[in-house]
Structures are given as C-alpha cells and as structure tokens.
UniProtKB/TrEMBL annotation:
The keyword Metal-binding applies. It comes from Sphingoaurantiacus capsulatus. One of its GO terms (molecular function) is dioxygenase activity. PANTHER family: 3-PHENYLPROPIONATE_CINNAMIC ACID DIOXYGENASE SUBUNIT ALPHA, CHOLINE MONOOXYGENASE, CHLOROPLASTIC. This is Aromatic ring-hydroxylating dioxygenase subunit alpha.
C-alpha cells in the first residue's frame, strides 16, 4: 500500500467528554482506507513492534523470517552470538533472500541471482563480481539493509523502523513490569514452544486489541467455557458478578493491563492448582508455587504464580498470561481484515506433565478451535459488518468510577487515546485519566 504523506484523518475519530463520562469512537476508524494509511505511517512505521523471543534464535547461526507490519524481516544470531534484524530483501533486485521460516545456516544466498550474504548481513559474493566497480560496496550499500532499531527486554525482541524512536525501556513504561512478571515464571528462563497458530479475521485489527483487554465480554461471550470449568472441576456454579473481579491499569504510552490475583476459576501450570489438573498434579504445582515464592519473595511471587493478566503493549502485542501464556500479534491486511499469529510461551525445563497441562490450556481457550477464539472471531466479524451503518462505539464504562474493575473500559480508552494522538497529530503528550 502506498502511503499518502499528506493524508489527513477524518475528524473527529474520538469524542471524549471527561466531565460527562462519555468516550466514543467513530466507526470510520474501522472502515477507512485513509485511516489505515495513517496507521501505517504514524504507528507501525514509528512504534516499537514485537518481532520474536530470544529462545527462537538461541543458537549461533540460527535465523527466522517473519512479516512485521507488511515488511519481510530476517532475524539472525550471527556466529558471535549477536542478534541482528534485516529487511529480508536482496539489495540487487529486491527478491526475498531467505524463504525458509527458521533454521540454522552459515550464510544466505538469494535464489534469483545467487548473491550471498553472511549472518551479519555483509555481501559475501556474487557470480560475475568483475561486472561491478571494485569499490561498489565500500560504503556497505550492497549489504543487507538492517532494520533501524533492535532491542531486547527480558527475552522479548522488538524492532522499530524509525531511527529516532525512544529507547525500548522508555517506550514500554510500566508494561515492562508485566513482561517481567511473565519472564520471572521460569527459574531457567522462558521459551517459545515450537510452532505457531496463524489465522485471519475479517475485522479491523484494532478490534482484536480491544477484545484482548475487554473483561466486560468474558461472561456473556464465553459462558460455555465457564460452564465447562464448573462441570469439569465438579464445583458448584460460581457466579462472577460484573465489576467485582480484578482491576485495569493505564501503563503509559497506550499500554494497558487487566489483572487479578486468585479470583478466577481456571488453573495455572505455574502455579495455581485446580481439580481439572488431576489430584496427581497437586504436589508438583504446589512445589512450583513454593519455588517461585522463595525465589521472588511472597509478594512478587503471589503476583507471578497466582495472578492473571491480559497485557496490551501498544500497538499490537498482547500477552495473555492467564491459564497459559499466549503471545499474539496481529496486523492489518486491509481496513476489514487482519492476520494473527499466536505462540505459546513456557518455562525452560518444565516437566513433560506440566508442559502437557500448559499446552492443553493454551489450545483449550485461546486456540483457533478453543472455547474463546471462535466466539471472539464471530463477535469481531459481526461488529465489522455492523460498522457500515455508521455511528459511534461507546467506550465509556467506568469513566466516572474511582474503582476500575476488569469489566470497565479504561484499558480500551488507554489504547484509543494514544492511537488518536498519533493518528491525528503525532503528539507525544502523556495521557492519563480514568
């Protein structure tokens, strides 16, 4: 898609009146090609974006390829162990240099004209080198083009296409604390479980971001899952009242989280036991919880082991650290379609039994055929179809409340305020408020 640099957002996209407790989003934000072009230019080309986890390229000479915001990216760990990210595009005639998803390699050879590049991106050679001037690559212009910025936080690898972007830790603000809660679960570190779930949704990408931090839809949309848990665990029906569970927080820079500690009916492999895990698993899970408490202290240990959090890192990284750890990104393929990739994250070295419980939880709820994801996709696609009638989405729940439970919409407003800043005027002003 070509980006019209002079494009202007249709206004208003967001209508907020804090004194009246009103927050609305113009449904054109989900339909407009012009808005999508502005998102590419002002958000995806300028913000830090999640690329991969260090465990996916743990060994020297390993690599992976991935599309990020429509751009093909090659991530390598060179022979000296340094991480590098390149545009996966040959500097000769623009073909993809590497067409494999992952692996190990001593070098990369473009299949079009056999130009060869090292894992550090240097042009190693080509057929007919004498056809170019002797100093043709003295300036490095024929080497693979590196991505402007790459930084790592607790194993999470981020890239940015803007050289002027602030350092990653400054960008993450308080969301870094929540990524650290995830990273702290494994005493030997964390790893992506091999494989990924990939699917598409016929809805605007922002709808999945909203849905991931929207506790309000949980009980009505996923009632079948809660009934299943009650049936499986042999427990009496537990009615979770709207507004009574957990809380939401604005983490700065558009990042937000909905979280709770020990108030929900599902279990966590690390480390909250439920009857559905089986009596034989209780001892292991209790031992895992004790290890976390001893290693991190009782206060932080309780958050890490028994807490649940749905974290949104602006613009499009969601970490669902609930009954398992799901890492998801999603990118627009048009105003009314997105592509989604989901990975399972797990402690390195956990037992086979614990890994089996984790993966069952992973696919059971948030997998493409699980209890939640098909329900969510149906609702998002239904909303997208409705937007052609125009109007506004109301995102006002909780604006006038002091206590913000997981069912209030503070997390959604946090995203939309930052989104509106960047799309309309590029302001860096910090936004706060309920």
């Amino acid at each position: 898609m070509s980006i019209a640099k002079s494009a202007r957002a249709p206004l208003p996209l967001v209508d907020e009146d804090r004194s009246a407790g009103r927050f609305r989003v113009n449904r054109d934000a989900f339909l407009s090609e012009e808005v999508l072009a502005l998102e590419q230019e002002r958000i995806f080309d300028r913000c830090w974006l999640y690329l991969a986890h260090e465990s996916e390229v743990a060994a020297a000479r390993s690599f992976l390829t991935r599309d990020v915001a429509g751009k093909p990216i090659l991530l390598t760990r060179d022979k000296d162990g340094e991480l590098r990210a390149f545009h996966n595009v040959c500097t000769h005639r623009g073909a993809l240099v590497c067409r494999e998803r992952s692996g190990t390699a001593p070098a990369f050879t473009c299949p079009y004209h056999a130009w060869t590049f090292s894992l550090s991106g240097k042009l190693n050679g080509m057929p007919g080198r004498e056809g170019l001037a002797a100093d043709a690559n003295d300036d490095g212009s024929l080497n693979l083009r590196p991505v402007a910025r790459l930084e790592v936080f607790r194993g999470f690898i981020f890239i940015c296409f803007d050289t002027e972007v602030e350092p990653l830790l400054d960008y993450l603000k308080e969301s870094a604390d929540y990524l650290a809660y995830v990273a702290d679960q494994g005493p030997n570190g964390m790893e992506i479980v091999a494989g990924a779930q990939e699917y598409a949704i016929n809805a605007n990408w922002k709808l999945l971001l909203e849905n991931s931090i929207d506790g309000y839809h949980g009980m009505p949309t996923h009632s079948t899952y809660f009934e299943y848990l009650r049936s499986r665990d042999g427990a009496p029906a537990k009615q979770v009242k709207v507004g009574n569970v957990g809380w939401v927080k604005n983490l700065g820079n558009g990042h937000a989280v909905g979280e709770s500690i020990g108030e929900v009916p599902w279990g966590r492999p690390y480390a909250r036991w439920v009857p559905g895990f089986g009596e034989a698993s209780r001892g292991e899970i209790d031992t895992l919880q004790a290890e976390i408490m001893e290693r991190l202290g009782p206060e932080r240990g309780a958050v890490v082991a028994t807490g649940d959090r749905n974290l949104a890192v602006f613009p499009n990284l969601v970490v669902n650290d609930i009954m398992a750890i799901t890492v998801r990104t999603f990118y627009p393929a048009g105003p009314d379609r997105m592509v989604v990739t989901s990975w399972a994250l797990a402690p390195i070295g956990e037992s086979e039994e614990s890994r089996a419980r984790r993966l069952r939880n992973y696919v059971e709820f948030l997998g493409p055929a699980g209890f939640a994801t098909p329900d969510d996709i149906e609702m998002l696609e239904a909303a997208q179809k409705g937007y052609v009638s125009g109007g506004w989405n109301d995102v006002s729940r909780g604006m006038l409340l002091e206590k913000q439970s997981k069912t209030e919409e503070l997390a959604l407003r946090t995203f939309w305020r930052r989104w509106n800043q960047l799309v309309t005027d590029g302001s860096e002003e910090e936004l706060v408020g309920p």
